[in-house]
Amino acid sequence: GAVVSQHPSRVICKSGTSVKIECRSLDFQATTMFWYRQFPKQSLMLMATSNEGSKATYEQGVEKDKFLINHASLTLSTLTVTSAHPEDSSFYICSARARGGQETQYFGPGTRLLVL
Amino acid sequence: GENVEQHPSTLSVQEGDSAVIKCTYSDSASNYFPWYKQELGKRPQLIIDIRSNVGEKKDQRIAVTLNKTAKHFSLHITETQPEDSAVYFCAASIAGTASKLTFGTGTRLQVTL
Questions:
Q1: Measured between CB atoms, does A58 come within 8 Å of chain B?
Q2: At CA A43, angle to CA B96 and CA A46, rounded to 5?
Q3: In chain A, which residues have their Cβ closer than 8 Å to the Cβ of B49?
Q4: Residue A35's CB: how many other CB atoms inside 10 A?
Q5: What average pLDDT score do residues B56-71 get?
Q6: CA-CA distance, B67 to B27, in Å (whole number)?
Q7: Please, what is the average pLDDT of chain B?
Q8: Dist CA B10 CA B50 (whole Å)
């Protein structure tokens, strides 16, 4: 149980294009999903907290207009990197917390984004 | 906000020895402390967690201790094996509606034969 998937697993795009990443909880309902960014050999940095049916809460320094988050259902959240630039290249990982569950977060497998 | 420090950044042990990783946190309201193992290019995997109403928790070769007064918690791995080699992250959060995790900087553990 508690499986989280992400799609795509890796993506290469040209500078200036937008990229959408999907995060799904496969066998449970997730009221809260989190989006992290991880640069090579660094820790996970929380970008935003996404609650189903409401606007995401962004961490300080994260541009909400650049990283669009939608949490339209209890099993799906999407992150869209708009007008991506090479400095946005990173490993993006989502996690989900089960509805009615405790604090445990289950992580997706991550999406490696390379912007040329 | 919460700040989590983690030491050491790298740790090399011989197979069969024990490994200890330590973390400190700043917010006394934090009451949930998970540990994650991340292999290269993979997702973080929860290996053990502890809540503030408990001082110690053990699961086979892995144990975590928590000192709320000193605001630090530690991961102990006994009888290390090569497959324990990975990056380990501690984290802290305040239980509640958000339960945001603040991660430590990670420890790269290398278990040598």
A1: no
A2: 40
A3: 104
A4: 26
A5: 96
A6: 13
A7: 94
A8: 23
Residue A25: φ, ψ to 5°:
-95, 120
Please report, as a single letter, which amino acid is at residue B3: N
Give pLDDT tens digits for A88-113: 999 999 999 887 666 788 999 999 99
Residue B106 to residue A57, Cβ atoms within 8 A: no
State the nearest Cα–Cα gap between B23 and chain A, in angstroms: 14
E strand or H helix at B90: strand B86-92
Give the span between the Cα atoms of B72 and B58, in whole angstroms. 17
Q: Taking CB atoms and an 8 Å limit, are A107 and B45 in contact across chains?
A: yes
Structure tokens at B11: 């740790």
pLDDT for res A44: 94
CB-based contact, A108 to chain B, within 8 Å: yes
Contact assignment for B105 to A42 by CB distance below 8 Å: yes
Q: Which residues pair with B99 in a beta bridge?
A: none
**Does position B96 have pLDDT exceeding 70, yes or no?**
no
Task: Calculate how close chain B gets to A12, using CA atoms only, in Å.
Answer: 16
- pLDDT tens column, B4-54: 999 999 999 999 999 999 999 999 999 999 999 999 989 999 999 998 888
Answer yes or no: is pLDDT of B97 > 60.
Answer: no
